[in-house]
Amino acid sequence: MDASGSATGAEYPPPPPLVTLLALTMGVFLVTLNVTVVTVALPDIQRSLHARPDELEWVIDAYNLVGASLLLSAGFFADRFGRKRALLTGYTVFSGGALLCAAAPSAGALILFRVLQAVGGTALTPTSLSIVANLYQDPRERARAIGIWGVSSGLGLGAGPIVGGAVSDWWGWRAVFVVNAVAGVIALVIARRVVPRSRSEVRRGLDIRGQVLAMAVLASLTYALIEAPRYGWTSPRIVLVLVADVILGAVFAAVELRVREPLVDLRVFHDRQFSGAIFITVAAFFAYSGFVYFTALYLQQVRGLSPLEAGLVMLPGALPVLAGGPISGRLVATRGARGVLFAGTCVLAVGTLLLALPEADAPLWQILVPALLVGIGYGFINAPVSTVAVATLPRQQAGVAAAMASSARNVGLVMGIAVLGSVVNGRMPGLQAHESYALAYTDAIHPAYIVAAGVALAAAGVALSTLRAEPPGTPRPVPATGR
Q1: Rounded to an integer, what distance in angstroms lies between the CA atom of residue 368 and that of residue 358?
Q2: At the fourth CATH level, which superfamily is domain 15-201?
Q3: Helices in 172-235 by DSSP H: which ranges?
Q4: Could you tell me how far CA 309 lies from the centroid of its own chain?
């Protein structure tokens, strides 16, 4: 012990004040909150702006699409121009975009302003995590801070329906975006005062061609999925977009395999566990986004619940995130990822499948029980799947793995709403010709829940076949060689 009473050995500066961590975690909380906070306000938005069903999907997917496309490049700008500057810019653009959303005169304008809001949000997620990792020098303090950052992410996604429901019910859907803007400005003011300046010593290049192609691939595929029910799967418009998407995907793969500093290093997918973790991430968020989106609409448009009441019914799908993250994290660290993620994906599949059973006038417990199962499954997947992805690759590729895992979440959210929305919107016209809207919508969403359950079940199979049983970081035995 030294004179101050501290242990000898490695000496670390005192951790930053909690207000600094608050300014950083507020960013990821707001970004993930905005994935789901608008869902319960969609019926109000539809009535106010006379939005079509496909435009409602774009209100959600435009935001997620930008995140999926730009997350991989966001870290470059933070490293090149300074992390604090990128963080403050992110808060500014996010808050400005939220205010414009609140004043949107039409569905098209709202979609455009959601894109702007997402651009700001994209700067917040990797930048805040990078600052957290660099502020805390003591490994234990760093792990604790990153854990709080991760809980904030899961909490934002799960709290969206109840927060959006309460605000929309009391003050209308525009107030949802005003509250976002106010929270963003408060975080901006705090971050400006307490977050220190920092930048990376390593100068990375930006794969501009890869970034443009990635955006084109995701945008064209999402457009085809969302708009196919409106124009028809065999219409020239949709067929041309799908053909273009295949060509763009091939070009993207060719470019990424040749460029020196690719946006997506495709070679990392040679590792079966990493590929499995990425697939499970996409599948889990695919299923969870379907639960949030269609359950929110069903509860209001079919059952006649208010936005707040709908958010309360969906609360069991959010609360397990708080306990599931720490519990599953400890289980993965001690027992390995295979069993934990297999169990989580199976529970998620069962919960989603049970949502396909209730009729239009079913008692609410038939929604509450499946919602709880969905929440438990999602809670056990959310945190550890990213840990597995990052821990699988060599340490020097941790940044690449983290960026891909974050982007995979957004891809799952985008594809979940686009694919399942295509199932629902494609069935509605035929069903409404013979049934009331309530019965038609109930019948239309049942196949969507079944598809979501099938995707979650596929993720369970991938967990069994690709993930290792031992905890992440455990050295793999070297096979003995014969003499």
Answers
A1: 11
A2: MFS general substrate transporter like domains (1.20.1250.20)
A3: 173-194, 208-231
A4: 24
